[in-house]
Write the structure tokens for this entry.
Amino acid sequence: MDMKKLLKIICILAVIGALVFAVLVVLDNNSSAPKHAIRAQVAEQGEKEPGLDEKQPEKEPEKQPEVDPEPAKEPEKQPAAEPKPEKHPAKDPEKQPQAEPKPEKQPEKQPEPEKQPEPEKQPEKQAETELRDVRIAYLKKYNKTLTTEEAGEIVDTFESFAKDRDYIDTEVLIGLSRFESNFRADNGTNYIGLLQVSAKYGEAAGYTVEQLKTPYYNVKYAMEILDDLNNKLDGDLCLILTGYNTGYYALKNKLDNNLEISTSFYDKVMTYANQVREQEEAIN
């Protein structure tokens, strides 16, 4: 039963008790009969309405529960604080299983040692070795003072400078060196070395005489001259070699004046180069 209903019942009983009490007071004041007569009348009335006298004293203490029961409503507000934080920890473990194991390491790639059987490249190396041996033999044939090691150094130098150039090859450099010095690296004073470069202009270009007597620097400086002629003469190997022999300005004078240009130097160099090619083809 709600508190409000209880309060209403208590108030109704209190009112009834007050009315009964007022009736008794009025009767007491208006009656001139002795109290015992009143009691007798009350007793007579009690026969009709038994228990009336007994209820009067019981109803007087019922006025005490008039205390406001409203503070009893305050505890009803407490359950408003519902424990909601229980939902948060439930979400955290759901994110943890995302860290899945990574077993996909693909160890199956190990059986790839089948690439080892590459001995097919050995014939190429053998061919290069044989080609180098033919060139070394050609140098030693026309310069008997060369050792195999010295001849190999010269051949390797020619090959290293010729491989990145389209207008000239190793065989032409060998033919040029045979014509100029017969493969003598320390030959000459004014013109020095394998390709007979000018000591004067070589020093002006930053080379020393001792450097120009070595195969590497001698060929390096000679290639600078040949590259310059190649750019000026549009890659014409005949004119390039002729200009290397006579000098660019002497050749240019003949070209500008439509004079006859001798190709004897070019022809001789190419004859030597072709001799090397023939011997290279013989090993195939």
About this structure: The first strand starts at residue 191 and ends at 192.
